[in-house]
Design goal:
The complex is a heterotrimer of chains A (680), B (159) and C (171). Chain A has 680 residues and is an alpha+beta fold. In chain A, 60% of the residues lie in helices and 11% in strands. Chain A has 21 helices and 10 strands. In chain A, strands 2, 3, 4, 5, 6 and 7 form a 6-stranded antiparallel beta sheet that branches. In chain A, a hairpin with a 6-residue loop joins strand 6 and strand 7. Chain B contains 7 helices and no strands. The longest helix of chain B has 26 residues. The model of chain B has no long low-confidence stretch (mean pLDDT 81). In chain C, the strands form 2 sheets. Chain C has a 5-stranded mixed beta sheet with strand order 5-4-3-6-7. The chains are: A alpha+beta (680), B mainly alpha (159), C alpha/beta (171).
Chain lengths: 680, 159, 171
């Protein structure tokens, strides 16, 4: 019954989205206001059907209705409620339904917000969105149908993948990722509308930019959450492995960030319209490529869903939208006329161009590295790998260049300047950069790239801080009182600018924290017998024993460790064999080894002790009786990465808060009378 | 018990050795912290064959641990990094090298991004120059949905 | 119409689509062995069930099936009966088991419970497995009478797979 109802809803959404797309495109071509109204109705209907279908699926999951195939696949009466709820997105079919759900909400919300505006563009945008909706509905109805019936219905199910039950981050990372990923469809629709209409006017820039910024915020946070999750769960002490699926999430973020920057030049000078539109299209296309990479089984990854018929279907859609985008660009890019020009290449505008160059190179490098093994195998039949050493080698210089631009770009004034002004803008931050460099050196940094990062980072921090508070300083100079000037200049009027610089501040911290945490990281592998201690990186670790714990889906061995400050009678010395060594107890850490019934190799869960300055990370390498072989890692500044990315997200949200709409007040010079004729 | 030991020694238990693949060690034997450093470094260049994409230095699997022990042993005997990587390549294939070798078709993965940077730089410079001298077109005439703006436009255009 | 954009765009689309289509249908977990067609790396290891020492070189003249496994490997349990049965049926083929990261006691216990029909060798530190490019267990190598590896199979085998690969060693 539930399964049938679900299937009906999905089929209905295929019909509604396809019909709606046709109507919307026709309405756009004919410039019909009535057609637009109907397009809007179809958009709302599509959203409603998707929300309902998702509701039905969640209901089936929570009530353990195993007659529905997806529930039989991932449901289980043995798992906690939160696991049941999130199992909606734990496996392939459910996750595509979730995609449709998020897409529906985005389409409905954007349509509603713009229901009385931009009537020139909206039909084309709605048509494009509903076409994407149609594809995903088709996927859900066909190759990835979660609503198939299972007869006879089993009594219980296996539960979702055990790895996904390990951590609470499972609750938030996928929804964030989908909100970012799926959200890229909206600016794509707007960009397609502009191209189809043959123009991109000033008034349309704001919704275009806002529709790009919102998913960008979600995607930024989602990528960070993914790294944090890998770090807390996987046990090798890292947060980014350049795994194909990780790269898939990064690629659209890179082009979207580039687009956000070129959009600023577009708004200020009216140039780079075609380029910005291209970047926005690329961001959407990369999300489709990304979902292909994750679901097709073509790539060897920790994250891959299992292979199925869905791969070729997504590939066909990708080819279709690629062709659509290329043709649209080829035929219409020239009609997006530049309304202005830039006065000088060596200016803030010029730096935006260089910024885009490096983002594009970054994107290209990650893309090439990810697909290269596939190409070689296809062409030469040989297998080879492109792994972390490659990406680190190529990406670090590009990242450093971007950090450099983060400082120099905002320091340069807009437009043409003379040499003296330029030096006055560019030289003072060097002092802060030098200070940062010296501080780092004093703390023991010797790696050349990290030192360079500190220099550029200090420079960029100075520039960012100076620019961030510029409106306030200008007001104070004019004589305004502090508090009102603060609120008015920074938050009421200068929000976009302020938000942007908050993002930059977060970005500088991220660069520096990544550099420091990767190059200043130290580790030690040691085997301890019960009662034995070792001292490493300022803490004494004492192995106090193991504990077995059996859970329905896994068998865990938990190893207990006391972490204390070294000192006290038997503190200090490695593997010296002191029992109860060390001084005051700071905390205990409990890494574990989990053997899941479904997996070949055991999976370890590390224990992480985070403080402001560093993370102390304990991972079990092997456990044999009374002996524990552990890996201890000391990583400075890791926690700063998560916090700083969150700050970037906050900055984006600040910039998103819409300004109050400007109203025009028409005041005639004098009230018109019957006798008046020529009023100037 | 002792007899068994003697017997075992006499029978010469021998697993296959790196020497058969890459010859004699060409470097100096390592020990102490330098040995650990190099083991770590090389372990991050070799791919664990059963884990999805992880390096043997990062993987807890048994095969990875064996491979790491083998790396350490070879370093102790004085094998160079090149020899060690070559040994693993001979038994596992190029698949096991996380850093693509700069030979044959693999050079492309190293060269292409640099080529894109160079070409891109040329394009950016030429675009910037073009934008400097671009003729300024008037903003496109757009129908507006703002009634006040429409009213203003009307009044401005009235003769 | 902007010719440059069109040409560059079409090229990009073609490349991407070609690359991804080519990737479909390939199993990303499977690794091609570079040792196929090359001489099998020699080893001399002790058999824990018969007490003898087996030298691979001495087995030339017969096709040899080298099966890497371990008592902690769950799929190996499924495969074991197939190997034992086929070993008994094919006296002209030398079956050899190689176990790594395991203890003699556990191996003997396993064999006592499930039967053994051929020598099972202990590769104490896994060096033999590394030399053969073994990734996981079970993995099986088929060596022809001249000592050349002609095939490798990853995962548990059934009789059909075993015979099919063995045929390559008999050519």
């Amino acid at each position: 019954m539930t399964a049938t109802f679900g299937r009906f809803l999905i089929l209905a959404s295929v019909l509604v989205s396809t019909t709606g797309a046709f109507i919307a495109y026709a309405a756009g071509a004919k410039r019909s206001p009535e057609g637009l109204k109907w397009s809007q109705r179809f958009a709302y209907a599509f959203a409603g059907l998707m929300v309902l279908a998702t509701g039905v699926m969640e209901y089936a999951l929570i009530t353990h209705d195993f007659s529905v195939q997806y529930v039989a696949h991932v449901g289980s009466t043995q798992v906690p409620l939160w696991v049941t709820i999130v199992s909606l997105w734990s496996s392939l079919e459910g996750s595509i339904l979730f995609w449709g759900f998020i897409l529906g909400i985005y389409i409905a919300a954007t349509t509603w917000v713009n229901r009385n505006q931009h009537q020139d563009y909206m039909p084309f945008a709605i048509g494009t969105w509903l076409s994407c909706g149609a594809f995903f509905s088709f996927l859900i109805a066909g190759p990835a149908n979660p609503f198939l019936s299972v007869v006879p219905a089993p009594l219980d199910g296996p539960g979702p993948n055990p790895l996904l039950q390990n951590h609470l981050l499972m609750i938030i990372h996928p929804p964030m990722l989908y909100l970012g990923y799926v959200g890229m469809t909206i600016p794509f629709g707007f960009a397609a509308a502009a191209l189809l209409r043959g123009r991109l006017g000033q008034s349309f820039l704001r919704p275009l930019r806002a529709s790009l910024l919102l998913p960008w915020v979600f995607l930024t946070i989602a990528i960070m959450l993914g790294g944090w999750w890998a770090y807390e769960v996987l046990g090798w002490g890292g947060y980014w492995a350049w795994d194909p699926v990780e790269n898939a999430s990064l690629l659209p973020w890179l082009t979207a960030t580039a687009a956000l920057h070129s959009a600023i030049v577009m708004e200020r000078r009216g140039v780079l319209k075609g380029w910005t539109v291209t970047l926005i299209q690329a961001s959407f296309l990369l999300t489709i490529l990304g979902t292909f990479m994750t679901r097709s089984g073509v790539f060897n990854s920790v994250h891959s869903f299992t292979q199925s018929a869905i791969g070729p279907t997504i590939l066909i859609f990708l080819a279709a939208v690629l062709l659509f985008s290329v043709l649209l660009l080829a035929f219409r890019i020239d009609s997006l006329e530049a309304e202005g020009r830039i006065e000088s290449a060596v200016s803030r505008e010029g730096m935006f161009l260089v910024n885009n160059l490096f983002f594009v190179v970054f994107t290209f490098t990650v893309l090439v590295g990810t697909v290269f093994p596939l190409v070689v195998e296809a062409v030469k039949g040989k297998q080879m790998s492109v792994g972390r050493p490659y990406f680190d080698a190529m990406v670090v210089p590009v990242g450093t260049a971007l950090l450099f631009l983060l400082g120099v770009g905002p320091a340069l004034p807009w437009g043409k300047t003379n040499r003296k002004e330029m030096l006055r803008a560019l030289l003072p931050p060097l002092v802060t950069g030098a200070i940062a460099l010296v501080i780092g050196y004093a703390f023991g940094v010797r790696n050349a790239w990290t030192l360079l990062t500190l220099l550029f980072g200090g420079y960029a921090a100075h520039v960012t801080f100076a620019q961030m508070w510029l409106p306030l300083r200008q007001r104070l100079k004019k004589g305004d009182a502090f508090a009102p000037a603060l609120i008015d200049a920074q938050l009421r009027r200068g929000r976009r600018r302020f938000g942007g610089y908050v993002v930059h501040a977060g970005a500088v911290i991220v660069f520096v924290a990544i550099a420091v945490s990767s190059t200043m990281r130290t580790q030690q592998e040691v085997t301890l017998t019960r009662g034995q201690s070792t001292t490493f990186a300022g803490y004494t670790v004492t192995f106090t024993g193991t504990e077995e714990r059996a859970e329905p889906h896994r068998q865990s061995t938990i190893a207990h460790f006391n972490i204390s400050k070294p000192g006290g009678p038997s503190g200090g010395g490695t593997s010296g064999g002191s029992s109860g060594g060390g001084g005051t107890l700071i905390t205990t850490m409990e890494p574990r080894m989990n053997q899941y019934a479904a997996m070949r190799e055991p999976i370890g869960t590390p224990a992480v002790y985070s403080t402001i300055g560093r993370d102390y990370y304990l991972s079990i390498m092997n456990l044999q009786g009374e002996q524990a072989g552990i890996l201890i890692i000391n990583m400075p500044m890791v926690g700063w990465i998560w916090g700083a990315v969150l700050l970037m997200g906050v900055g984006g949200l600040i910039a998103l808060i819409p300004a109050r709409k400007r109203t025009y007040v028409v005041v005639p010079e004098s009230a018109p009378t019957i006798d008046d004729e020529a009023i100037a | 018990m002792i007899a068994t030991f003697f017997l075992l020694a006499l029978l010469q238990i021998k697993a296959p050795d790196a020497a058969q693949f890459v010859g004699q060690p060409k470097g100096i034997p390592l020990s102490g912290p330098r040995l650990e450093e190099q083991t770590m470094a090389i372990s991050h260049e070799l791919r664990c064959p059963v884990c999805q994409g992880l390096a043997i230095g990062d993987s807890p699997s048994i095969m990875a641990a064996n491979m790491k022990a083998q790396v350490r042993e070879l370093l102790e005997r004085g094998y160079t990094e090149e020899q060690i990587l070559s040994y693993f390549e001979k038994s596992y294939g190029q698949f096991v090298l996380l850093k693509p070798k700069f030979q044959g078709v693999n050079t492309l993965v190293w060269i292409l991004p640099i080529a894109v940077l160079a070409i891109g730089f040329v394009l950016v410079v030429s675009k910037a120059k073009k934008l400097e001298v671009a003729p300024v077109a008037p903003p496109p005439e757009e129908p507006t949905d703002d009634p006040y703006l429409a009213q203003v436009r009307e009044m401005v255009e009235k003769p | 119409m902007n010719r440059t954009v069109l040409i560059i765009g079409i090229i990009i689309v073609a490349v991407i689509v070609f690359v991804l289509f080519a990737g479909l249908g390939k199993d990303p977990q499977h690794i091609d062995s570079p040792l196929i067609g090359k001489p099998a790396p020699p080893f001399t290891l002790k058999a824990v069930n018969t007490g003898q020492t087996i030298d691979l070189q001495s087995l030339r003249g017969k096709p040899v099936i080298v099966n890497f496994w371990a008592t902690w490997c769950v799929p190996c349990y499924e495969e074991h009966p197939t190997l034992v049965a086929n070993a008994r049926q094919l006296p002209d083929v030398q079956f050899v088991g190689v176990v790594f990261n395991d203890t003699e006691d556990k191996i003997n216990q396993f064999l006592a419970a499930r039967g053994s029909a051929y020598p099972t060798l202990l590769d104490a530190n896994g060096k033999t497995a590394i030399a053969y490019g073994v990734g996981g267990v079970p993995e099986t190598y088929f060596i022809n009478p001249s000592g050349i590896i002609v095939a490798k199979f990853e995962g548990p085998m059934d009789s059909d797979i075993l015979r099919a690969n063995l045929a390559k060693a008999l050519r």
